Amino acid sequence: MKVFRPFISCLFFLVSFTAVAQQITYKEVKDIPYYPNSSDSYINEKCKLDIYYPENKKSKATVIWFHGGGLTGGAKELPEYLKNKELTIIGVGYRFSPKVKVATIVEDAAQAIAWAFQNIENYAGSKDKIILSGHSAGAYLVNMVGLNPAYLQKHQISNQDALGIISLSSQAITHFTARNEVGLKETQPTIDSLAPLYWVTKDASPILLITGDRELEMVGRYEENAYLARMLKLVGHTDVTLLELDGYGHNMTYPAFPLLVKEIDRLLAK
């Protein structure tokens, strides 16, 4: 009988642990306006949040997630992989070009992030544990807001207040939709005030840049991120990481999400 006691003890622990884990329940709230007093019909249509959070436990961190779509389409989303991981997730909707300019879309992103800082305590989160993240156009938005301090300063928030930035296949030069607004082709590289590269600084939150395989990604996407990482390091940023997912193209969120969660755990442990 002694031979089986460690097994029985281990089994009891696993059952008990599973029972505790199952006690965490989650709630989802949809279509919360982050411009709450707007009379603009397009703002009221698009500028909304969905929130997923633990009902009976403090979340370990909050992920503000911006969807992709070239700044011309898409819809707010709560990534399935991030659910049931003791996280608060905020899926952000925003306005699109050509109805508004790209500069206005970046302002939407800043407004949504500011809303989260101001209200996250009501959704099991903490202001000091907010992650800015997104894919493609969404990653571009978090890099713009995370690197240029002016966007959040308008809301009395520092861009360094975020626990971290986790960017999945962002453009680092001026977004091709912004270039299209002024008649430039997608193959005409530009770095101006609508480029994350324009705002490289040592004074930003930790940044993880993830792209797909350089041979399978969108045109120049890996190279742009490699240049962004290099320039951030050259100006003195001390916590920048670049990862390339071999064998994956632009639609690389599936293998990237486990890396996102791992990075959150790393940042929480600092």
TrEMBL record:
The lineage of its organism: Bacteria, Pseudomonadati, Bacteroidota, Sphingobacteriia, Sphingobacteriales. InterPro entries: AB_hydrolase_fold, BD-FAE-like_dom, GDXG_lipolytic_enzyme. Residues 49-214 form the BD-FAE-like domain. This is Lipase. Keywords: Hydrolase, Signal. Residues 1-21 form the signal peptide. The keyword Nuclease does not apply. The keyword Metal-binding does not apply. GO terms for molecular function: hydrolase activity. Gene3D superfamilies: alpha/beta hydrolase.
